[in-house]
Amino acid sequence: MSVDLEKIQQAVRMILEAVGENPDREGLLDTPKRVAKMYAEVFEGMRIDEEEYFSTIFSEEHEEMVLVKDIPFFSMCEHHLVPFFGKAHVAYIPQGGRVVGLSKLARAVEAVARRPQLQERITATVADAIMKKLEPHGVVVVIEAEHMCMAMRGVKKPGAVTVTSAVRGIFANDSAARAEVFSLIKD
Ligand code: ZN
């Protein structure tokens, strides 16, 4: 399904009116159009299947850990529709030569983040997609993010960082493997 730009524009006009603004004043005239375009962009992930990124598999006899750190991402909290953003770290141990291009890990994070989201769900969705498509020995996804809904409203704690992790496969059972990946992420 494609984005209904017209409907977003109407909604933005209504919000501006509802907060007491005049949507027809000069500075706001093109705002509904700009906001509609922005939403289409920041919610682009609605129309992407993250599992597609894991269908190109290179046969590589590598069964040691692969870690891509500090993948920047931007998302929108589904409770307030304000941004949260930070870094994702994705690690996995391939099995049977099933390895993907490193950029695909970053692209999957981006696709999953560009939806109305919860940080916990991004973390689990990326980990589960890798487990399902690559059947690796294990996966760890860690996300650190700052939430604008905690910074600019409500509890008003700018700078607070929320950390979530999803641990799958061997990392769930092997504490040495888990300690190794977490220390590499922290470095
Ligand atoms: Zn929120």
Task: Describe this entry's structure for a reader.
The protein has 187 residues and is an alpha+beta fold. It has helices at 5-18, 31-42, 102-113, 119-134, 148-151, 170-173, 175-186; strands at 58-59, 66-77, 83-93, 98-99, 116-117, 138-147, 162-169. The radius of gyration is 20 Å and the shape is elongated. The mean pLDDT is 95. Zinc ion binds at residues 77, 79-80, 147, 149.
Task: Describe the structure using short key phrases.
single chain, 187 residues, alpha+beta, two-stranded antiparallel sheet, 7 helices, 40% helix, binds zinc ion
In total, the number of strands is 7
Helix-residue proportion? 25-40%
**Please, what is the average pLDDT?**
95
Beta-strand percentage range: 25-35%
Trace the largest sheet across and list its strands.
5-2-3-6-7
Q: Which of globular, elongated, flat, extended, rod-shaped describes the shape?
A: elongated
Q: Which secondary-structure class do the elements indicate?
A: alpha+beta
Q: How far is the N terminus from the C terminus? A: 42 Å
Bound molecules: zinc ion
* Biggest β-sheet description: 5 strands, mixed
- Secondary-structure element pattern, one letter each: HHEEEEHEHEHEHH
What ranges have pLDDT less than 50 throughout 5 or more consecutive residues?
none
How big is the Rg?
20 Å
Q: What is the count of DSSP helices, taking H or I runs of 4+ residues?
A: 7
